[in-house]
Specification:
The protein is an all-alpha fold. The protein has eight helices and no strands. Helix 5 packs across helix 6 and helix 5 runs parallel beside helix 8.
């Protein structure tokens, strides 16, 4: 996975995550930190995402599947949880909180505590 991130994920991975999260292209581009112009240019040239954008796609996908696992593969519930403000994250949505790797790890810890019935 590290090699794939370093080399850049194909845009199909960006598109798959966007569909899983129910985001528009604009919302997903903002979340990943890529401009629409750069995204369009990469699409036309058949180029992959760069490593920083690939890393964010992997982080959000990891959180999506961890949330889906917690909600017993109920993807609608996972999507809702990831996009709803959470008191345990200072009122931010889990996806907003996960804009950094440290924030992503904290979201994973919250899901872990929920899974083990720890009061938040």
């Amino acid at each position: 996975m590290i090699l794939a991130i370093r080399q850049g994920l194909p845009l199909a991975e960006f598109d798959a995550l966007r569909e899983m999260l129910g985001f528009t292209v604009e919302q997903m581009a903002t979340k990943v930190g890529i401009s629409i112009a750069t995204l369009s240019r990469r699409r036309l040239a058949g180029e992959p995402l760069d490593s920083a954008h690939s890393d964010r796609v992997v982080r959000y996908a990891r959180l999506y599947w961890q949330a889906a696992d917690y909600f017993e593969l109920n993807e609608d519930a996972a999507r809702a949880w990831l996009t709803r403000p959470a008191a345990s994250l200072g009122g931010e949505t889990p996806l907003d909180y996960a804009e950094t790797e440290a924030g992503g790890r904290e979201v994973e810890h919250v899901l872990g505590r929920l899974e083990h019935g720890v009061y938040l």
